[in-house]
Amino acid sequence: xxxxxxxxxxxxxxxxxxxxxxxxxxxxxxxxxxxxxxxxxxxxxxxxxxxxxxxxxxxxxxxxxxxxxxxxxxxxxxxxxxxxxxxxxxxxxxxxxxxxxxxxxxxxxxxxxxxxxxxxxxxxxxxxxxxxxxxxxxxxxxxxxxxxxxxxxxxxxxxxxxxxxxxxxxxxxxxxxxxxx
Length: 181
Prior knowledge:
Strand order of the largest sheet: 1-2
Strand content: under 5%
Low-confidence stretches: 57-66
Shape: elongated
Structural class: mainly alpha
Number of helices: 10
Oligomer: single chain
Order of helices and strands: HEEHHHHHHHHH
Distance between the termini: 76 Å
């Protein structure tokens, strides 16, 4: 009977342990989301974690940063002080950015990196807002809704958007943004 008691104790202790990689905010009874590698509570509070391969997520970010710096320095400086609302005035550019940043979920609800959800986190928008914005698809683009909301701030600029896209490792979106120049 003693080995059965030890086995039961070990099983209970393992059940209470936080999943590998859990943050200090993850509760033991929260649903663990394997795609985001965090619990539902953290996902609601902090939004999706950084994308693998983004500047802040990996040591390899140094090489990605080197690749993005020429793009930022060469093609976007003249856009830096222009208002973010300029994207809304250029439907072709907005459409291309929407295709890149508002992807359809992958098979099995897979998570894409560097999407509008990640961009919203950069602008300090709550994760609940992103969930709501994505629920309105396909009638309304989450990216368009984000830009309309953020553009109300006088300090919102194309340069800030370019910086956020670079931090997310989205050179493709930076290329599209450079068409505004």
